[in-house]
Amino acid sequence: MAGYVGILVSDPWLQNQFTQVELRSLKTHFTSMRRESGKLTVEDLASRMSRLKVVGENLSEQERADFIADLYPNLKDEVDFEFFLKVYLKLHAHASARTGSPAKNSSAFLKAATTTLLHTISESEKASYVAHINNYLAQDGFLNKYLPINPSSNDLFEIVKDGVLLCKLINVAVPGTIDERAINTKRLLNPWERNENHTLCLNSAKAIGCTVVNIGTQDFIEGRRHLVLGLISQIIKIQLLADLNLKKTPQLVELVDDSKDVEELMSLPPEKILLRWMNFQLKKSPYKKIVSNFSTDVKDAEAYAHLLNVLAPEHSNPSTLTVKDPFQRAKLVLEHADRMGCKRYLTAKDIVDGSPNLNLAFVAHIFQHRNGLSTQTKQISFLETLPDDAQVSREERVFRFWINSLGNSTYIDNVFEDLRNGWILLETLDKVSPGIVNWKIANRPPIKLPFKKVENCNQVVKIGKQLKFSLVNIAGNDIVQGNKKLILAYLWQLMRYNILQLLKNLRFHSHGKEITDVDILRWANTKVSDSGSQSRMDSFKMSRKR
């Protein structure tokens, strides 16, 4: 099994959109189509893709032809396998939107008001995100000549075409994600430099937790508004929810009663923690309902009125709770927020319309500005066990970003906790060495029985030995138990193997020329020099300034 390499695609982003089973099936279809007439052109795809599930069943041949012609006007161009995969992805998303079923690996946040059949976008969301960008990137030395962006125009979609703004926005959301010396920031970029920026942006977006399914570098170049806005919304969401964890805001421990509840709280996604915080504060008011979402449960603005009265009673207006019209109440809520110094992110209409993205952004900013939690953190012994070793935290962050950048089915927040059932490690191994995992004996989450987790992790260790990893005294149960030292040792070897495979691919594309440390150092030093820095690296063992 170790000798099986599966079907490889040169574009890593495209490779990550499919399982090996899907790639094999699509490869068979592609080969069959091309065999019918000796070659396959863009014009042929509409008729010959009728045999494909979803694409063939839910779209007529004319609909497929019209959709393809809009995207690729050169109908006589010959189609290779990778082009075929890109067309399939776009048709699949189009067909899924048509039927209302989920697109392949789609994200609910990305599918919100910004992605519909006609690819319309929410002008209110666009205006809110533009205001956010104008605020947080106003002092950037490169972007200040483009800012502020006019929210009523489509300038945003022109500015993102070189990839710089999105890279900078990612660093605002999660500082240090991208070394800005790697961003090409010349005034006029050639196609290769622009593509480097887009690839850097997409990989980094995946690393911090964005879902980038069906988004490619060409979408940025063409300024596809619904896709660009969908990605921006995810990046901003990650920034606004960054403090919703016990490490950044230990006062959140007030929301629970004992250490067992703390463990549960740590496992919740930030949106759920935000809802729990909101309901915790609402219990201090006469409001008796439970808020379970940022859409229908807040559209009458009543929950907001009570929340702000609890957090900032000095700015309250008695009329807010007595007015009968939800729209008027929403306007009074936003006036209250203004007096508190909170950014709006939405209008009164967005509240009564139940816009989930903008309501979430509004509540998240209220939390950042005034969370109403005690400054005296409870002394719960469990908190003292949280990882605080700087070296371990730094390594964990690197491996977490790397695993998330591979496009696995689940985003991980902590490698020591989220890898313990073995499933994400198996997915990562399959990305790094396609076909090496025996999925027939793998246990898919949710996994309740501990021995099922051990079975997954035993296969992880077994595959590691096949790949010649040094795994002395490492067993599957060590991963299940969350042994930090052994998990980091395994991940280091797995990441190293992945990089070596990448270097082998580079050698293949460079006509057999061996890629050495000298080549990598020369590339890195050129990048640093182009950014205007005098730093220089002579080897991977030491560095100095010249």
UniProtKB/TrEMBL annotation:
InterPro entries: CH_dom (IPR001715), CH_dom_sf (IPR036872), EF-hand-dom_pair (IPR011992), Fimbrin/Plastin (IPR039959)
Pfam families: CH (PF00307)
Entry GO terms, CC: actin filament; actin filament bundle; cytoplasm
GO molecular function, one term: actin filament binding
The protein's name: Calponin-homology (CH) domain-containing protein
Keywords in alphabetical order: Actin-binding, Cytoplasm, Cytoskeleton, Repeat
Keyword Cytoplasm on entry: yes
Biological processes, Gene Ontology terms: actin filament bundle assembly; actin filament network formation
Cited Gene3D superfamilies: Calponin-like domain, EF-hand
Domain Calponin-homology (CH) intervals: 123-240, 268-371, 393-499
Subcellular location: Cytoplasm, Cytoskeleton
Organism (species): Gossypium raimondii
Signal sequence coordinates: none
PROSITE patterns: CH
Quaternary structure and interacting proteins, as annotated: Interacts with F-actin.
